[in-house]
Amino acid sequence: MSNADHSHASLMDTIYGKQRYFYDATRKFYLLGRDQILQRLAVPQSGTMLEIACGTGRNLCLGAKLYPTAKLYGLDISEEMLKSAKANLQRTGLHDKVQLAKGDATNFDGATLFDVSKFDRILLSYAVSMIPDWEVTIEHAAHQLKPGGELWIVDFGNQTKLPNWFKNALYGWLRKFHVQPRQELETVARRVARTVHGTAEFGTLYRGYAQFTVIKKPSIS
């Protein structure tokens, strides 16, 4: 890792060293839309799914239940979060279905980490708002897709249909945790889609509270 990578890893470990113990209990109230996106992933039979910045493994546990024939993988830059992910997978009896590794979202190598060079589905759930080089992350992830693969991203939206006081309060609170909603997500996703000769779709959830995008890489004809 570069010095910047080490700095970000240290920051994440500092933030989540204690928070990881109650992360899932609190985040369910405001990390909205995760379950809907997981269901829409539609991982193929015996396919592969990677979650980048998998955190506590919460989404991977649900994904393993939704797609029992799939092979699931998770990476995170935080050792502390990976401790919780491993514990949650053990507790739910899903540790044999999911492989975890420490990695940087901007430059990971699936072949080295998991012996998997490309993936059918990749998920970034409330992660791009915390990754400094988030545009690089999206582009790198898109290039890790198999032909016909899909990259799904869900994160905080621009709150357009919600009161200004709510948006200001939410954004102010998020800044305390180094979280920055990405207003340019749709533009970046469409640009990245072109680099893989694919398409990008965009939508919002809960009156703009959350936004999501899917980049689809074309199949080989």
From TrEMBL:
Name of this protein: Class I SAM-dependent methyltransferase
Single Gene Ontology BP annotation: methylation
Originating organism: Ahrensia kielensis
EC code: 2.1.1.-
Domain Methyltransferase intervals: 48-166
Presence of keyword rRNA-binding: no
Domain of life: Bacteria
Database matches in Pfam families: Methyltransf_31 (PF13847)
Keyword Transferase: yes
This protein's UniProt keywords: Methyltransferase, Transferase
